[in-house]
Amino acid sequence: MRISAIRARLAALGALPLHQERVLRDWVQGAAHERGRRPASDFLPKPVRAALPALDAELAALVRLVSCHPAHDGSERLLLALGDGQTVETVLLPRDGVCVSSQVGCAVGCRFCMTGRDGLLRQVTSGEIVAQVVLARARRPVKKVVFMGMGEPSHNLDNVMEAIELLGTEAGIAHKNLVFSTVGDLRAFERLAAARVRPALALSLHSTRAALRAELLPRAPQLEPRDLAEHGERYARLSGYPVQYQWTLLEGVNDGPEELDGIVELLRGKYAILNMIPYNTVPELAYRRPSWERARDIAAGLRARGVLTTLRDSAGQEVDGGCGQLRARALPARRIPLRQG
Questions:
Q1: Is 152 within 8 Å of 115 (Cβ atoms)?
Q2: What is the C-alpha to C-alpha distance for residues 205 and 229, in angstroms, rounded to an integer?
Q3: Which of 106, 110, 113, 323 is the catalytic position?
Q4: Is 5 helix (H, G, I), strand (E, B) or coil?
Q5: Is 323 a residue of the active site?
Q6: Catalytic residue among 89, 128, 152, 170
Q7: Percentage above 70 pLDDT, the chain
Q8: Is residue 153 within 8 Å of residue 160, measured between CB atoms?
Q9: How far apart are CA 297 and CA 275, in angstroms?
Q10: Is residue 115 within 8 Å of 150, Cβ to Cβ?
Q11: For a tag on the chain, would you pick the N or C end, based on fewer CB atoms within 10 A?
């Protein structure tokens, strides 16, 4: 179910744009239709009111909680089932954030990620994306939404941008607290620049060496790191939000002196933040997480050299919760058939 389809369905019942916005606002805010000075019974056309119970039930069924995995850091990793039985992961983050998935699987195939091992199975619709936020809000407050879960948002632009527009206009979430994460795609830069709601941008960098980045992200657009940074800088100046460069720190891979020199050369003086995240070790994969002391020294060294650097722990370490792991563990038991496409 796409948000555009919900609007069309409401319009067919006689709902004007302001009526459509009211129904969608109630949904994304988890609010009762009869609230406030203009309850639905006085505000919405009669055919729309008659259709609300069925529509509400359909929206509530877009995602269903399968399992919850709380962590000591305050995060919760949720495995959610979609209407067709496929599953995605959503993470409730500390400090009122939620990380949502935009695809079932992923076509980029990052070497250090479990999500892409089965390839892309299907797109997550804009309704299913927003439904992840609605479910999260039923569990705790949500003031920030990051598109950093399963999938590559730039490969599902229509649905992701539709979800971002609704969240940025009706959900009471500041535009800077909507974060579009991507490996870098020229189409995404164009759509973001022209969007009604311009989210903050996070770019998955992971290496300043083009050959190594291509090895780590084998099916990402083959943009040189310098070109990626130039596109990011233009969007940062346009949106007014610094670009967040994502760097998964892999022991012995992208944590050496050559990479650190490359980061300084690429990002010093840019309107940017480097988010360094020590790898969340996955037993099935060959990459390893560096020690926290080593990661802390690297971040401190970059700060001393003029690169604004944050060091963040990947949420859910103790529940073995790297992106895609919950779904991977659940699949053999659930026996959901996989398909490419």
A1: no
A2: 9
A3: 323
A4: helix
A5: yes
A6: 89
A7: 91
A8: yes
A9: 14
A10: yes
A11: C
